[in-house]
Amino acid sequence: MGMMGDMMGGGHMGMMKKFKMLGLTEEQEIKIDDIQHQLHKQHWAIMGQMIDVRAELRKVHAGDPPEAKAIGAVYGKMFDLKRQMIETTIEAKNNAMGVLTEAQAAQMKNMKQRRKMMHSQGGMMQGQGGMMQGQGG
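^ thats the sequence. predicted structure below, dont judge the formating
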């Protein structure tokens, strides 16, 4: 559920919130909302397929003995569905970026760079803190 939670919750929902922080025009908001709506529809259809694949997975796991190749094939179907969700999310983001002006696109890139920098600095700080704790203990 972790990846699907990211896809349906924090993944593209967070992405769309970031777009709306750019001072969009009403026309841009409508276009981006439509992109988000289409992505939701695609993901719900894929999640319906995943429910079927999970049922299939339960059946192949119940085999006595379970067949490794059959289980692997079903996991392959599941991974293909997850891949589709990742690809559709990236396509939606690219489509939404296409709605932006050059200035808004630059602002979005700057926000992304700042976020990366904060994550890398936070990681180093945590790493140093962990080292300090380890040295003192």
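The chain has a mean pLDDT of 82.
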